[in-house]
Amino acid sequence: MARLADYFVVVGYDLDKRGGSEGQGHILQRFPEKDWEDNPFPQGIELFCQPNGWQLVPERERPSFFVSVLTDINSERHYCACFTFWEGLDNPQLQKAEASEVDEDEVPGLVQPAQVFAPKSLVLVSRLDHTEVFRNCLGLIYTVHVDSLSVPLETVIGNLLTCVIPVAGGSQRTITLGAGDRQVIQTPINDSLPVSGSSVAHLFRQLGIVNVLYLFCAALTEHKILFLSSSYQRLTDACRALLAIMFPLKYSFTYVPILPGKLLEVLSTPTPFIIGVNSFFRSETQELLDVIIADLDGGTVTIPECVHISLLPDPLLQQTQTALSMVLDPELEIADHAFPPSSTQPSTLKIQDKEIRAVFLWLFGQLFHGYRWCLHIIRIHPEPVIRFHKAAFLGQRALTEDDFLMKVLDGMAFAGFISERGPPYRPTDLFDDLIANQVERIRQEECSPHKVMNHIKELAEQLFKNENPYPVVAMHKVQRPAESPGHNDPKNLAIFPPLDDVTVQLFIDHAAAKLKTAPPMVRAELNGMVPSGPPLGDIVDRHGHVLANSARRLEVVRNCITYIFDNKMLEAKKLMPAVLRALKGRAARVCLTQELNQHVLQNRAVLDDQQFDYIVRMMNCTLQDCSHMDEHGIAAILLPLVTAFCRKLGAGITQFAYSCVQEHMVWTNMQFWEAMFYSDVQNHIRALYLEADGGEQSIASHGQQESGPAAGGQELLGALELASEQSRLWPTLSKEQQSERVQKEESTVFSQAIHYANRMSYLLLPLDTSKNRLLNRSGIGDVESVSNSYVTNSIAGSMAESYDTESGFEDAESSDVANSVVRFINRFVDKVCNESGVTNEHLKALHTMIPDIVQMHIETLDAVHRESKRLPPIQKPKLLRPILLAGEELVMDGMRVHLISDGREEATGALGGPALLPAEGAIFLTTYRLIFKGTPNDPLVGEQVVTRSFPIASLTKEKRISVSLSMDQFIQEGLQLRSCTFQLLKIAFDEEVASDLAEVFRKHMHKLRYPQHVQGTFAFTVGQSGKTLVEHKTKDKNQSIKTLSKNLVKSAKRTIGRQYVTRKKYSPPTWENRSSLQSELDEDEISVSEELDQGSLTLSSTIRSSDRQTMSNVVERACCRDYQRLGLGTLSNSLTRSKNEPFRISTVNRMYTVCRSYPGLLIVPQSIPDSTIQRISRCYRQNRFPVVCWRNSRTKAVLLRSAGLHAKGVVGFFKSPNAPSAGPSQADSTSLEQEKYMQAIISSMPSYCEPSGRNTLGGFTSTHMSTSDSSDKLRQPKIGALMKQVMGGKEDVPGTFSRGALGQRARVISLSQPRVSGKARNPPGGKWGSIRGSGRLSAYNPEVGNRLSSKESPQPNGGPSEALFLRQQRAYLYIIGDKTQLKGGKQDSFQQWEVVPIEVCDVRQVKNSFKKLIKACVPSSATSEPSMTFHRCLEESEWMCLLHRVLQVSVLVVELLDTGSSVMVSLEDGWDVTTQVVSLVQLLSDPYYRTFDGFRLLVEKEWLSFGHRFSHRGAQTLASQSSGFTPVFLQFLDCVHQIHLQFPMEFEFSQYYLKFLAYHYVSNRFRTFLLDSDYERIELGVLYEEKGERKNPQVCKSVWDYIDRLNKKTPIFFNYMFSPEDEEVLRPYSFISNLKVWDFYTEETLSEGPSYDWELVQRGRQERLAEEVPDKPDTTTPKSQRHIVWPCYDSRSRVVPDAITKLLQDLQSLEAELGLPPEKWKDTWDKIKANQRAEAKLENRPSFNSSLLMSSNLSHQRRSQGVYLPESGVGSSINLAMDRETSTTSTPVAGRPSTSTLYSQFQSTESENRSFEGILFKKGALLKPWKPRWFVLDKTKHQLRYYETRQDKECKGVIELAEVESVIPGTPTMGAPKNIEEKAFFDLKTTKRVYNFCAQDSPNAQLWMDSIQSCLSDA
To answer: How far apart are alpha carbons 29 and 1857 in whole angstroms?
Structure first.
C-alpha cells in the first residue's frame, strides 16, 4: 500500500522579492509540515510550478494543469501535479512609484493597468503516477474554493493526504475526498510493466514512425534527447511514452520531462539525458551541438551533424517499421484494393497505444532472445551474482559487427536489465514469458506480417489488461467550477485562503494511528524459476555464414591432423595451405579444437619438433581469424589446449604451445579473461552443487549450458536452473548450512583465481623476456612495438646474438616485463574477486602470490628460450639476385621480406590459377629501382619466380603497415609502397631483419626518391660508375650495422672527391669556345665543368647575342626543321626575312630573357617587331605570349599557344576599342599592341585576304575550300554543337541523359534530322543536332555557340539584336580561354576574333583524380563492399571525365582549324592543359605526327621546348616534393592511346610505344624528361649533349636514341596495321562510353617485372632458357609442348606473340641456324610489303593504300559511316572513315564493315570473282529451320559464301570448297519449304558435316550442282 499523495503545497507569487526582470514563487503552505521518514520533501518545487518563470499578467488566464517529474538522490521519481490559477491584486507598480522599482524593460510612458493577476499553484507530490486522479483532486479543491461550497477545504485536503491505495495487483479502489465526489482508481496488475495511457500513440502521431524510431535508438545508445513543445502536459507524456517503449530496459540517466527556464544550463551536461523544454526557450537550445531535438508541435526530429545514431540491425528495422505502419495506418495495405473493406479504422487510441508497445516488446524479444544462455552465474549464495557474456551472445547471433547491439549491450540500461532480470529465481512478467515461450513463434512468423500482427494484438491485449484490469465503471463524480456569467469578474474571486494547519495535521495523525493498529497487509511474492527459452545454438544457422562445401573443408582439417599425429609429415605439408584457408571459417576452427582435444591424454600431449611446428601454425591461424572479442569462443576452447601440447627440448625442459601463440590481441583483452573466468567458475559451482545433491535431484533440464569446455552432453541440470533451485531452498536452511555453502562457493572462486593468474602469466610473458611485447601495447596492442618474432625453430641471423646474460641489464629488462604482466593480472584479480565476493584475506593472499607466480614462470621460460635457440635453424628459400642495368648499382643489399597480396585478385589465385602471392624473397634498393624477387609461399608453384619492381623515382606514397603473415602469426612491421607506374609493393620484413635496418632502408629510399638536385637522379649518375648516390652514408649514425657498412663506406669515399662539382651550378662554356659543337661535347659534363673559370656565369652573360653560332645551335633543335616543313618561315644564312612570308622565326628569346620557359626560336607574325613582343609578353602569365606552333597546309589556318592573360589584362583586351578612356595609359597601349598582334595573325590567313572570304554559314565558298564544299556544309552546324558542349560546364548537362558505360553522362549528339525550333534556319546539308544546354551559357557569350550552330541570338531584352546582321560570318580566330578568367570581357562586333570560354581541369583535379585512379587500378587491399568495385572506383576517380574533356576541346579545335579559322589556345599557365590540347590537335590534324619521327618531334617541340615542367610535375627533387605528382603528360599519352584504339591504322607506332614512354617519363632512366625548360637544360648542359657523348654505348641518355636503337633490333614499337590515309584528319569520339581503361594501368607481369627495361627482360629470358637446357632429354616420356599462360604472371605478348612477330622471329632463328648474316626486321617487312604491292598491280587488284593487313589484332575495327566504292576496278581506294561525329564522304551507306571483311567486301562489285550466285534454302544445324540465303560461288577464292540478303555486305558463313567431298541430289527433310519439287533438293558433303540445300526448282538445282562440281574439278 502507498499514500496517494505525500505532500500538498500551495505556492504563490513572492511580492517581496520582486526585483530584476523576473519574479519568484515561494511556498505559502505545505502539509504535512514534517517530512515523512520514508520520503523527504523535494526541494525547488516553486521552480517547477512555473517553468517559464513567475510573472504578473494584465489579464486573467485559464487555470492550467500538468505533471512534472522530479528525481531524488536515490533515483526515485516524484510526480508533482501542478494546478495553477490566477488571482487579482492591485498593481504594485502603481503603489511604489520609485524609479528604482521600474524595470528597465518597462517604458515609463506606458499606462500601467490598475489591477494585475498573479499565478498561484496547488501542488500534489506523489510517488504514484495517476495523472487523471490528481487532475480531479486538485480541480475539486479549486472548485470548493471558487464556488464556495460548504465543505471546509481542510477536510478535503486532509482526506486527500490520508488516502492509501495499493501499488499494483490489479485491484480497484473507490475514494472520496468528502465533498460529494467519488473516484475509482484501478491499479495495474504487474507494476514492472510501465503504464502509458495513450501517450505512446500520441507520440507517434506527433512525430511519425521513422522519427520515433530514431529517438528510440538514440535513447538506447545513450544520446542526449530534448523534447520541445508549448504544452507542458505533452512534454511529460512524450517522455513517458519514450520510456514505455524502451521496456524491458529502464532509462537510468537524467530524466526531466519539464525543465524550468532557470535550469537550462543542465542541457550542456556531458551525460545522456531525456529532457523536455517549453518552446518558449527554443532559441536557447539552438547552440547545443550534440543534442537531438524533437519538436512535438512541428513533428520534426533534428539530429546534429556530429551525432551518429546507430539504427537497429537491418531485417529487424524493416520488420519493425512494417509492423508499426500496420498498427498506425491499417488503410495503407488496402489502399490499392479494387474492393476495399467498408471500414478499417485504426484501433482507439488506448488500444493503439498498447499495440505500438507490443511491437516494441516483440522487437526486444527478437533482439534479446537467448540472452539467458549467455549468463554466467558466479555466486548463488548469499545473493546470486550474475554476469553476461557479451562476446558469446554477439557471436552466436552473428551480429559482432552490429553497431547498435554493441552499444546497447555496453550501455547502462542493459547492465540494469541483467542485474534485475538475471537472477534465476524471481517473479516473472510478460517479457520473461515472451523470451521463454514465444521465440520459436516469432522466428517462424517473422516473414509474414499478418501473423506478426496477430501476435502483436495478443501482446497488446495483455498490456491493456495489465493497465485496465476491470471493465470501466462509470462511478466517477467530480464537481467542476460553475461557469457563471460573472465568473471572470475579478471582484467575484476571493483570494485562496490560508488553511488551518492544525486541522489538516489532525487528519494525518489520526490516519497514522489507525494504520499502526491495522494488521500489516502482506502481498505474496510469487517467485518462480525463470525459464531460459530455446538455446541460441539452433538460431545461428539462419544468420551464420555457412561456407560452401564446408563438410569437405572439415574433412581436410581432420585428415591433416590425423597425418600430423601419425607422423606422415609430407602428406600434412601438402594439405597445410588448404587447411590454413579452411580455418577462415568458424566451423573449421571448432572442428580443429575438437580434433586436438581428442589427442590430449591427462592434460598433456608431447610432440616432436615438426608436429609441434604444424600444430602451432594451425593454432595461430585459428586465432588470427578470431577477433579480439573471441565471439565464437574459439580462443576459450584453445586455452586449455595451449597448455597441453608441448615438446621436449632437453633434459627436464619442456616447451608448451602457449609460448608460440602469444601474438594475438585476444590475450590482452580483459573482457575475454573475465568471460573465461566466469564461465569456469560457473562450471565449478555447478559441479559443487551437483555433487552435494548426490543423485537425488533428477530434474531434466531444458538444455545444457553451452559456455566453457566442460559442457558435456548428459542430461544434467543447467547452472541457472540449479541456482534457481538453490535460491528456493535457501530460506529453509539452517544458519550453519548457509554459511558452509557461502564458504564453499567463495573458496571455489578463489582457487579459480589462482588458476587464472597462472594461465594469464603463460600467455602474457614472452618467451624471450628481454622483449617487452604484449603489454607495453597498453593492453590493446600498439603495433609499432618490436615484435617478439619467435618462430618455432630458432633463427640464424641477427636475432641469434642475444643479450649477454651476465650483464646487469637483463634483470632490469625482464623485471619491466614482469611488472607490466603483474599489473595486468592484479587488475584482473581485483575486478573479478570484487564482483564475485572473495574475502579480503583471500584477495591479499592473491596479491602476494601473483609476483611469485610470474617470477617462477620467467625462470622456466629462460631455460626454454635458451634451449629453443639450439634447435637447427629453419630452412628458408635462398635469396635470388636481380639482374641490373648497365650503370645501375645496389644501394642496399637484399633484405628478406614477404611480398603480401594486395587488392588485385589475379595473383592470389582468387580468380583461378595458382596463388603466386604471398611470396617470400628479398627487396633490393638500387640507384634506379626498387626490386622484389622471390618465390611464392604456395608449394604448388614454389619453383616459379615472382618479380615486382618499379623505378625509385616513381614512388608516390610510402606508408608503414603491420602485417600478420598467415603462416606464422607474428605481427610484422612492413611497408606499403605505391608507384605512379601503377605498381604496389606491400612487403613485411622478415623477423631476421632488424627494425633499425628497415628504418635505414626507408631513409635511403627517401634520399634516392627526392635528390637535392636533379643531377642526383639516376639519369645523371648512371654512367659515372663509382659515384653512386650513397654519399650520405658518411653522415649516417648507423655505422654499426654490419650488413650495410661495407658497400656504404666504399661509395662514401668515392663521393667525397666529386662533391664540389655537383654542388656548383653547371654553366656552359661561352659560345666562342663551342665553335664546333661536336668536338667540345665529346667530353662528358664533369670535365667540362672543371675547366670553367670559377666565377659561375649566368646564361645570359655567357651567350653573346650577335654570335651567329648561337643561332646555328638553336637551329639544331629539331623544331626548326618542323617549322620549315610547315612553311612557317625559314632561317636563311643571313637571317633575312623573306617579306612575302606571313610569319617569321624570331630570335627575340634567344637569351631566354623574354620568357624563361619558351624555346629560343619562336614563330611570330612577320609584321610584328621584336620590341612589341617584349611588351606584349608582360600581359600573359609567365610571359608566355601567343606564338604559332602549327599551320594547316590546306586551309592555312594557324594554331597558336599562350598562357592565360594576367587578370588585369583581360578586360583591357576585350574592351571595345571605342570606349572612352581617360588618356592613353600604359595598359591601353599594350592592349592596342595585343590587338595589332591578333590582327597580324588574322591577316596572315588567305581567307582573310580574299574578297569573297567573309565565309558566312549560308554560302561557305571561299576558293581554297571549294574542293571540300559539300562535306563542309555537312559539318558546319556541327561545330556549334561541339562548341556548346565544350563551353558548357558540368552543370549544363540536362538531367535526362542516359548514363554512359562508365556512369558519366555522355552527351549524345544525334545524327538524324532532329526537330528544329521554329526560328532556326536550316542549312542546306541538313541540320546536326546540338545539345540544348540548360541556358547557363548566356552568362558568358551566347552568340558563340548559337552563331556556330547558325541560330539567331535574340537580345536579352527580347528585341532583335542589331549586331546579328554584322556577325553572321565565322570568326577568323577563336581564342580558347578559361571560363573563370574571361568574366567581364565585352565582345565587340567588329573584331574578327572570338573567345570560347571553357572550363579547364586544374592541376589539383588531375592530381586527385590520379590518386584515385591508382587506388582503383592497384587497390591496397581486397574489398567486398559493393561501393568499392573497380568500375565504381574508376568512375569516382573522374579520370575518364578529364580525358573526355581534353579530347573534346581538342576535337573542337581540330574542327575549327579544318574549316579555316585559326585557333589560339590560351589556358592556365600555358604549360599543362594548353600543351595537351595543342599536341593532340596537331596529332589529330597532321599525319606526320603519327609516325615515329613526327611523334618524337611533337613531344620535343610542344612538351620539352615549350617548357612543360616535367621535374616539378613529377616531383623529381626535394624542392618539388611538396607539390606532389601530377601526371599531365601521362594524361596526354592516355588520350593518344584512346585515339590509337579508335584509329589503329593511322599510327606507325604501337600501343607498347606509348606505354614505354609512360613508364620512362617518370623513371628518370633517361635525361629527356628531366628539368622544366630548355633554359634549365642549357644551364645544365643537357640540351645539346644528346648528339655527342658516345663514349659509353650502354648508357643512353635520350629516350629517343634508345627507342631508335631498340626499334632497329625488334619490331616491338612498330604497328603492323599502319596504313595511313593521305592527309586524313582524325576526329575521335570523346564520350566516356567510347573511352577504354588503358591496360598500362592494370597489367603486370610477375614473371619478369615491367617489360620496359628491355635489356633486363631479354637477359632474364636468356638466363631462364639457359637453366632449362641442361636437363637431360627425358627419353622415356615425350615432353609436352604445351605451356600454361597465367594472367598477371606471364607476358602474353611474349608467350603468345602475334602472327607477324612470330614469323619474323622464326626468320631470325632460321637465319641463325643457316649461318646467314641476320637481316634487319624492317628490311624484311618492307620487302614483303613491296612484293605485296607488285602482286596487287599484276593482278589488277586495287591495293589497300600500301597496307598489308597481316595483323593479328584484327579485333580493332575501322568503323565507317560509308564505304565509297567507285565503279572502276583500277586504283579505287576504300575510304575508311572513322565512324565519328562527321562524315567526310558524301554517300552514307548503312553497313559498318570490320577490317576482317574488307577484303571480301571489296570484291563484291567485281563480277569476275562471282562465278555463280543466287538464292538457296539452307537447312540449319540440328533442330534449326530452313532459311533462304544469298549464295555466292567464288572460283578465285575457292569458296561458297552466303549472305542474309543480296545487298548484305556481312558474310554470314563460308564453305571452303577444298573440304567438299561430293555434291549429290537430296531428299526433303522435316521443315523443308512447301510446294517445291523433290528434285530441287541437293546435299553438299564436306569433311565436317552435310549441308542440305534447296533451289527454287529442279533446273536451278542442277545448275548449282554443275557449277560446284566444275569448281571442284578445276581445283
So the answer is: 122
